[in-house]
Design brief:
It contains twelve helices and 17 strands. It is α/β, with parallel strands linked by helices. The protein folds into two domains: 246 residues, Rossmann fold; 125 residues, 3-Layer(aba) Sandwich (Rossmann fold), CATH 3.40.50.2300. The strands form four sheets. The protein has a seven-stranded mixed sheet, with helices on both faces. Strands 1-3-2-4-5-6 form a six-stranded mixed sheet, sandwiched between helices. A two-stranded antiparallel ribbon has the order 12-13. This is ABC-type branched-chain amino acid transport system, substrate-binding protein.
Length: 397
């Protein structure tokens, strides 16, 4: 695990450095936290107060890195842009990133590292999904006397009422994404869809959501064999009879699946994926067979949207990183901006307790056109869009 500040990036986030990033991610297995060299004491602001600290725990293992890397770039852009504009109430926000390998031991060490920093007032934008779910479990079981709020994690499963005491969702989870993806095709008269889960674990987590969404729309969902299956079942996976296939998994698994997929003769096959698929990376990996188009559902506005938050994201990313915009990057930007909006609305001292109290009020927040609203402890609105990767490598939407 490594810890560093956003003003001193430890690794380039440029997609051209994919191989170097993979090597760096595999090295994130050390057993203790290491910080980048800095001054002997945390920076102070003109009013003599120490800077605020917001920590972000990031899983950079191979299966997560295409999502986590872009999400982290978006968050860093937001915090650096905020500080360039004067911070929060004149105070600099020190964005501390803690890398983890996603194991229970690594997550526990990262979570403890954040808690040990007295100036740290929140965890913001923790990513990816498995790591965020592990942190939710740690939050709930720890019973800390001074709990850190877990704000806007990249989390696909809804939290319970008990977990919602310290966990504050911003992005719609798999259940809403799946319903949106299936509804789009049900409206076109489709009666049956095939469903492929990247692994048995993913199937266990999401199968109920798929069946529930399909049933509500009058669709039949046929579960296809798991990737890696051999024999006749493997042929069913390579040559499906359905022209609409819902894929639940990440970018590497989707690429492996679609590279062997054969579209039904004379027909176009659409593979619908969810938010853990990065179309930009998938396009660079190449190999999409003829007759196959890939649609990715994403819990944020289209990156081509004219919404103020999207324009701000693209401007900040261009200013601070040599990086192309992506839905995952926009999500990271929104996570940071939402956290900053909550911080800016607190009257009185900015502490862990005041941050948690402000979040627990669950007031509606408009982040440049992206609204976060709640009914009780649950999100009452969901922003879900879709983009398509065509067989010639173009991204539409």
């Amino acid at each position: 695990m490594a810890m560093y500040f956003s003003d001193f990036p430890a690794v380039s986030l440029n997609r051209r450095h994919w191989i170097q990033w993979s090597a760096a991610a595999s090295a994130v297995m050390a057993g203790e936290v290491m910080a980048q060299p800095s001054s002997a004491s945390p920076p102070r602001n003109s009013d003599g107060e120490r800077s605020l600290v917001v920590a972000q725990i990031v899983d950079l293992t191979f299966g997560q890195q295409d999502v986590s890397r872009d999400f982290l770039a978006g968050s860093r852009s937001a915090w650096q842009d905020l500080n360039a504009r004067g911070g929060v109430r004149g105070r600099t926000v020190r964005h501390v990133t803690i890398e983890t390998d996603g194991t229970p031991q690594g997550l526990a060490a990262a979570w403890q590292a954040a808690h040990r920093q007295p100036e740290c007032i929140a965890l913001s934008g923790c990513v990816g999904n498995a790591a965020a779910a592990g942190l939710v479990a740690l939050q709930t079981s720890a019973g800390s006397a001074s709990p850190l709020a877990l704000v806007a994690p990249w989390l696909h499963n809804a939290v319970t009422d008990n977990e919602a005491e310290t966990v504050f969702e911003v992005f719609p989870g798999h259940q809403i994404q799946i319903a949106h993806a299936i509804q789009t095709h049900a409206s076109l008269g489709v009666k049956q869809i095939g469903v492929v889960f990247a692994s048995a674990q993913v199937q266990h987590q999401s199968q109920a959501y798929v069946f529930q969404a399909a049933k509500s729309l009058g669709l039949q969902a046929q579960i296809l064999p798991l990737p890696g299956t051999e024999g006749q079942a493997a042929n069913q996976l390579i040559n499906p009879t359905q022209t609409i296939i819902l894929f639940v998994g990440g970018t590497p698994e989707l690429h492996a699946f679609t590279s062997k997929l054969i579209a039904p003769a004379g027909r176009q096959c659409f593979v619908v994926a969810l938010a853990d698929v990065n179309l930009q990376v998938l396009a660079q990996m190449g190999g999409t067979p003829k007759g196959i188009s890939i649609i990715a559902t994403q819990p944020v506005p289209l990156i081509t949207s004219s919404l103020p938050v999207v324009r701000a994201y693209r401007a900040a990313l261009s200013r601070f990183f040599d990086e192309a915009p992506s839905p995952q990057g926009l999500a990271g930007f929104i996570a940071a901006r939402y956290t900053a909006e909550i911080l800016g609305g607190i009257s009185g001292p900015l502490t862990r307790a005041s941050m948690l109290s402000a979040l627990q009020r669950r007031a509606d927040v408009n982040v440049g056109g992206y609204t976060v609203a709640y009914q009780g402890t649950k999100r009452s609105n969901a922003y879900v869009t879709q983009s398509m990767l065509t067989q010639d490598g173009r991204i539409i939407g």
